[in-house]
Amino acid sequence: MDKKLIIAAGALALAMTGCDQFCQGGAASQTKTTLVTDKEKYSYALGAHFGNQAHFQLVTRDSIDLDVDVFIQAFKERYNEDSAKYLMVDSVVFETLNKLSADRQREKEMKDSLAAEANKAAGEAFLAKNKTAEGVITTESGLQYKVITEGNADGATPAEGHIVKVHYTGTLLDGTKFDSSVDRGQPLEFPINAVIPGWTEMLKLMKVGEKVTAWIPSDIAYGPRGRGPQIPGNSTLVFEMELIDTHAAEEPKVEEAKPEVKTPAKAEKKAAKKAAPKAEAKPAAAAPAAAAPAAAPAAAPAAPAAAQ
To answer: Which CATH number fits domain 132-248: 3.40.980.10, 3.10.50.40, 3.30.230.70, 3.40.50.300?
Structure first.
C-alpha cells in the first residue's frame, strides 16, 4: 500500500475530527467558531494543513471514493485502541489495503494503455498529414523536420562522439509544453548519444546556428512507456531546436609511468653497495659482575612514570 496514501488518510481523519474529539477518548466537542487559546490555534492550523494535503492526495490526485463516516469511525477506534469495537483484525486490514492498491494499479495500467493507443493513432494521423506540408522533410526513420533558420555557412555538423549545446522547447501535439531550456535561460550541453534516438538523428542533420522544428514519432522518442506524467505513452513530440555548438569530446588523459633515469653516479653507487661484504654481527661483551651489596635496601625505588 502506498505510504503517502496511508499518511494522507490519517491526516484527513485528523483534520475532519479534530484531535480533541478522540485523542483522550472523550465525547466530541462542539464546533469551534472562535479560537482563543494557543492549543486551539495550533490545533486548527494543523487540521487545516493536513486537511489541504489529504484532500489533494486522496481526492484531487488519487480520486479515492471514501465512505467518510466509516473512515472516521475506524480512525477513532484505532487511535484509542478500542479493540472491542474493531470490525477488522490487522491481517484483514492489510489484505484489504493491498487489494485496494492492486486494483488501483490495474486500473491505472488499463487507463494508460488505452491512452497510449489513442496517442499512437493520433500521432500517426498527424504525421501522415504533416509530411505533405510545405518545407517538411521526412527521414527513413519517420522523423520529420522543417528548417526555420539556416545554419552558419561554415558551421560544424555534430558527429558520433560529439558534445553538443542546444536550446530547445518541447511540446505535445496539443501544444502542452513539457520542457524548455529557453524558459530556463540555459542551453543544454550533453553527449550526442545521451538522448532519445530522434534527437540524435536530428542533431546529426543540423549545422551550428541552425534552428528547426522537429516532429519525433513515439518509437524514436519515449515509446509506449512515456516519461512520467508529462509525456504519456506513445506521444509524438514536437521540438523547436537550435544547435549552438558542437565539438569532439576530449580524450581522457592517461599519464604513462616514466622509466627511472640512472645517472653514472647513481649506477656506480648502487653497484658498490651490492659488492660491499656484509659485516658480521659481533656478540656483545659481557658486563663485569657487580659486587653484591652488603645488605639489601629496606625498599625498592619507585619506577618512573614513563621510560625516557
So the answer is: 3.10.50.40
